[in-house]
């Protein structure tokens, strides 16, 4: 296998991180809604953790996308 094809395979594997982050965001919001519907009084307390979890998960997805682009188009 030459270096160019290995570079594109690595970029594809790194790009999967963005999709996995999307799954994580869906799980975070789904679990929040499940908990908020079971206990509406605690929904306000969980909102801060929801936003923090969303931000961290989305940041990891963006980092994975940047790494994929750097691998695909870098020298």
Please characterize this protein's 3D structure.
This protein has helices spanning 3-38, 43-73. It is mainly alpha-helical and 75 residues long. It has one domain: F1FO ATP Synthase (Up-down Bundle). The chain is elongated. The two termini are 17 Å apart. The mean pLDDT is 91.
Main attributes of the structure:
single chain, 89% helix, mainly alpha, F1FO ATP Synthase, elongated, 75 residues, 2 helices
Number of strands: 0
Q: Any idea how many domains?
A: 1
The CATH class designation is Mainly Alpha
- Element string (H = helix, E = strand): HH
Ranges where pLDDT stays below 50 over 5 or more residues in a row are: none
Task: Set down the secondary structure blueprint.
Elements (H helix, E strand, L loop, with lengths): L2 H36 L4 H31 L2
Brief summary of the model shown:
89% of the residues lie in helices and 0% in strands. The chain has 75 residues and is mostly helical.
């Amino acid at each position: 296998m030459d270096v160019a094809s290995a570079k594109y395979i690595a970029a594809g594997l790194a790009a999967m991180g963005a999709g996995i982050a999307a799954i994580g965001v869906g799980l975070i919001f789904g679990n929040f809604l499940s908990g908020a519907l079971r206990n509406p009084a605690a929904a306000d307390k969980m909102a801060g953790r929801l936003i923090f979890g969303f931000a961290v998960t989305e940041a990891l997805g963006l980092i994975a996308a940047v790494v994929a682009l750097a691998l695909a188009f870098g020298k």
